[in-house]
């Protein structure tokens, strides 16, 4: 079914088109040159206005006597701050850990404790080594004294780890 603009409420159409027209007209009024700066530079100067004049906005920084020299390629920093990439990596690790905890809780509400992250890392290492009976190993590894994880849940944990966490 095609939707058409409602003609019952013309105010909606006007409200939607007004900002677009205003932006369009604002861009059409200039040819790209600043005529006020040209007028300012050709105006006669007196000794009082010459000392109090603000710098020309079209001037480059090298033309003004108080401007500092532009940095050369040798003085530019080689890389952004090294902590930035480390902070991003740490944020991704934290997000992965939180997602893993939530997914483990989905499998079994008793799972998802912070120590289960270390158990998941160890289970990933065992999955990459292709150990025998990984589902039983996961069930034993994630079981605690108060809670026993079944082999079926161990299989779900291994599927979760191999699809999302190990990598």
Automatic annotation (TrEMBL):
It comes from the Bacteria. Residues 29-89 are annotated as: Disordered. The keyword Signal applies. Residues 1-26 form the signal peptide. PROSITE patterns: PROKAR_LIPOPROTEIN. Transmembrane segments: none annotated. Residues 40-52, 74-84 have a biased composition (Low complexity). Keywords: Signal. This is Lipoprotein. It comes from Streptomyces liliifuscus.
């Amino acid at each position: 079914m095609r939707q058409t603009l409602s003609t019952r409420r013309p105010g909606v159409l006007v409200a939607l088109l007004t900002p677009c027209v205003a932006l369009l007209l604002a861009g059409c009024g200039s040819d790209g040159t600043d005529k006020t700066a040209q007028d300012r530079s050709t105006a006669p100067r007196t000794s009082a206005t010459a000392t109090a004049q603000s710098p020309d906005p079209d001037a480059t920084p090298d033309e003004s006597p108080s401007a500092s020299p532009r940095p050369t390629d040798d003085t530019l920093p080689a890389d952004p701050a090294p902590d930035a990439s480390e902070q991003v990596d740490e944020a991704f690790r934290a997000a992965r850990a939180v997602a893993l905890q939530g997914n483990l809780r989905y499998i079994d509400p008793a799972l998802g404790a912070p120590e289960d992250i270390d158990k998941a890392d160890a289970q990933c290492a065992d999955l990459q080594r292709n150990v025998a009976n990984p589902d039983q190993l996961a069930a034993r590894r994630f079981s605690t004294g108060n809670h026993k994880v079944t082999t079926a849940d161990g299989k779900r944990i291994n599927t979760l780890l191999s699809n999302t966490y190990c990598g």
